[in-house]
Amino acid sequence: PDSVPDTITYTVSDGASTSDSTLTLNIVDDSPTGALIEEVLGSSSGPNTVNLIFVLDTSGSMSATVENTDLTRLQVAVNAIKEVITEADNSIGNVNVQIVGFASSTNESAWFEDNIYEAKSFLDTLTTGGATEYDAALQAVIDGGGAVPTADKTIMYFISDGVPSDSGSVDDLNGGVDGVAAWEAYARDNI
User: Rounded to two decimals, what is the model's pTM?
Assistant: First the structure.
């Protein structure tokens, strides 16, 4: 290792007397040492799979035009959902999609397994009208469009522009038998 001395001269004073001295520092300038560290980053043996559940309010208020656009709230939501589906497909691998449109009743799809084009087409069939019945939406998710496909992760988006109608609270799930517990059990087991 290289060693470089550095001498500093200093004066100490207490106001009445002074004292001069030097301080010598030996600066050791070692070169950094290292070893080759190799880390191979790669994907798993196959593509990742994600399940996306979109629960979308299609009640009458979703027909309102969004300020400064020519689009309804439903059209804006559908366009955003399509972007999420496309981005997931491009960045994750396999994407399974279930869509539940809800108002006074529901319009739910089966699972679109690794078929984003059919999922996007289903979104285009949704229309507005009726009340905002959260319980019907959540019950449709619980009842499902068939078994939840096997995936590395399941993500659910619940999209609404308002509060539920008086008759559509979560307490009404499963015939009013502790709807919150029913939903929590479903979410814990499937999402």
Answer: 0.71
3-class SS letters over the chain: CEEEEEEEEEEEECCCCEEEEEEEEEEEECCCCCCCCCCCCCCCCCCEEEEEEEEEECCHHHHCECCCCCCEHHHHHHHHHHHHHHHHHHHCEEEEEEEEEECCCEEECCCEECCHHHHHHHHCCCCCCCCCCHHHHHHHHHHCCCCCCCCCEEEEEEECCCCCCCCCCHHHHHHHCCHHHHHHHHHHHHC
Instruction: Give the strand pairing for 93-102 and 153-159.
Output: unpaired
CA dihedral 116, 121, 124, 127 (to 10 degrees): -100
Q: Which of 10-14, 77-81, 173-177, 187-191 has the weakest average pLDDT?
A: 173-177
Task: Please check the confidence at residue 87 and state whether its pLDDT lies above 60.
Answer: yes
Q: What is the pLDDT of residue 41?
A: 47
Cα(123)–Cα(140) distance, rounded to whole angstroms? 16
